[in-house]
Design brief:
By secondary structure, the protein is mostly helical. It contains 4 helices and no strands.
């Protein structure tokens, strides 16, 4: 449960980062569209912050996609029991198959009637 909470917090943080990135872009465009006294330093700073924010979001999205890929392909990791459940079900199925085979072997090798077997061999000797 802690992993789910951590992942949700990461997504909420990512959402905040996207909002901040849009604000950097908005600030840059507003400053560039002014008719007078354009502050080029502010434009450069906001543009740099925008680019850094985009890179940060890209990295976080790639990590999240990687995490989701691990979960969906059952690669072992600390946040899921899917792989263990799958292994359990496969082992359970193998046990069932082994039991079926053993039951068939037991049916084939049931004790025969010893008296009739002995009489058959005695008849063959005479």
């Amino acid at each position: 449960m802690a992993m789910k909470s951590k992942e949700l917090q990461n997504l909420l943080h990512l959402e905040s980062a996207v909002i901040q990135t849009v604000q950097y872009a908005q600030s840059t465009l507003e400053e560039m569209s002014r008719d007078s006294e354009i502050n080029t330093q502010k434009i450069k700073t906001d543009a740099q912050m925008f680019m850094k924010s985009v890179q940060h979001i890209n990295e976080k999205l790639l990590q999240t996609i990687s995490y989701l890929g691990e979960v969906s392909t059952a690669v072992p990791h600390g946040g899921s029991v899917y792989n263990s459940e799958k292994d359990f079900h496969l082992a359970h199925e193998q046990c069932r198959l082994v039991l079926d085979r053993l039951n068939k072997l037991c049916e084939k090798s049931k004790p025969r009637d010893f008296v009739s077997d002995c009489s058959d061999t005695q008849n063959m000797e005479t």
